[in-house]
Amino acid sequence: MRKLRNIELGRLSVEEYKQSTKTPIVVVLDNIRSCNNIGSVFRTSDALLINKIYLCGITATPPNNEIRKTALDAEKSVDWQYFEHTEEVVKKLQEEGFKVYAIEQVENSIMLPDYQPANDEKVALVFGNEVKGVKQSVVNLCDGSIEIPQYGTKHSFNISVSAGIVLWDIFQKISN
């Protein structure tokens, strides 16, 4: 077995990516502190043709060398927009017909394996701060919450890991 070279992978150019049909998922980053986490979410979003990323509050925005280190230029392909207040984005997305879900441990959350988006449902996923999670005022506005089951002693995943798990799972459910 031989590893494939990058040229053999048939990846889209940035221009082709911008013109391609996107997955009906948007990501909302609520006060993410780490530029490495932000960059990782851009890279995962690029890989799964995520529609857009909303960067909110203290979340850094491109151009930023720390974001670029982990995004590997995905910040140039994935559309993004900055809002000071996450609550404003949630309301905007709901007005546009999105179902907005906090990725958080809350009462009556839906376990990720049990979550099944409705046909043609537009999904917005809110990922929260590395320490405090999704702000309660944002959780209050969301249509629901999706929780990743966990079985060890820790009560959370890193935001970039959470995004990878949730985006891959929902991408697979929407694509099938």
Task: Note down, in words, how this protein is organized.
It is built from seven helices and seven strands; from the N terminus they run αβαβααβαβββαβα. It is an alpha/beta fold and 176 residues long. The protein has one domain: SPOUT methyltransferase, trefoil knot domain (Alpha/beta knot, 3-Layer(aba) Sandwich), CATH 3.40.1280. It has a seven-stranded parallel β-sheet with strand order 3-2-1-6-4-7-5, with helices on both faces. Strand 1, helix 2 and strand 2 form a beta-alpha-beta unit. Helix 2 packs parallel to helix 3 and helix 2 runs parallel beside helix 7. The chain is globular, with a radius of gyration of 16 Å. The protein starts with 13 loop residues before the first helix and ends with a helix. The mean pLDDT is 96.
Q: Care to give the gist of this entry?
A:
This protein is of the alpha/beta class and 176 residues long.
